[in-house]
Amino acid sequence: MQVESTLFFETPEEIYARVFRVVNPRTIPPEIHVEFRRFANANSSIRLENGRIAVKITDLLAVAPAPILEALAYILLSKLYRKPIPQNFNHQYRLYLNRKDVRTSLHSLRLNRGRKFLSGAQGQCFNLDHLFEELNAKHFFGLMARPELGWSRRPSRTMLGHYDPSHHVIILSSILDRPAVPRLAVEYVMFHEMLHLKHPVDHRGVRRCVHTPEFRASEKKFPGFAEAKLLLKHL
Ligand SMILES: [Zn+2]
User: Fold this and answer.
1) Among residues 185, 170, 194, which one has the least CA distance to residue 121?
2) If you measure from the C-alpha of residue 36 to the centroid of ligand 1, how many angstroms do you get, rounded to a whole number?
3) Does pTM surpass 0.70?
4) How many angstroms separate the alpha carbon of residue 195 from the centre of ligand 1?
5) Could you give the domains of the chain?
6) How far is the CA of 181 from the centre of ligand 1 (A)?
7) Distance between CA 11 and CA 8 in Å, rounded?
């Protein structure tokens, strides 16, 4: 006689309820709702609202194997309840995101969904095209192809510059586009982002190293490096 085998699939909600019991052994899991969303990145979020846990996961992970979803459940629930994130799950999840095929789909996701706001290079005080070409001539033998350049919509203090390889765009924070900001400070931020074009991101296993030792060494060659860093600190 053949025993009827039951293939047992856990729904994402069941995975979260099970992991919840490990993270919070003496608590009854609340209602949990898991939703895959069309994000333009690999972000996921968890929130406790009205006694209900709401999890939003990028649909990039909708095809991920169950152990990866489980690893993410450990990460998110540990974060929510301020418990240390188990290293093995963290590692497993990062490894997955760093897989070549996953990185490739993340890249095309960003391309297709990421909305890029571009203000144009001319700001109130600085022209990014001019700045770029000056630095290009001075430090890169004029050999660097100019990406699209623009100012951020919101004047961010925490993200002064950003290079987006998917769109080949450098965005500088509009907080820098003010008369009170010395040109040297803006030059330095642009120079930093230009180095991201020169030194592509290094993917080594788990770690995604954006500022490699070579990157840091080139950065220090910027004339007025220390002064510029100090200026930005007092911004
Ligand atoms: Zn950087």
Assistant:
1) 170
2) 30
3) no
4) 8
5) 12-113 (3.30.2010), 128-233 (3.30.2010.10)
6) 20
7) 10
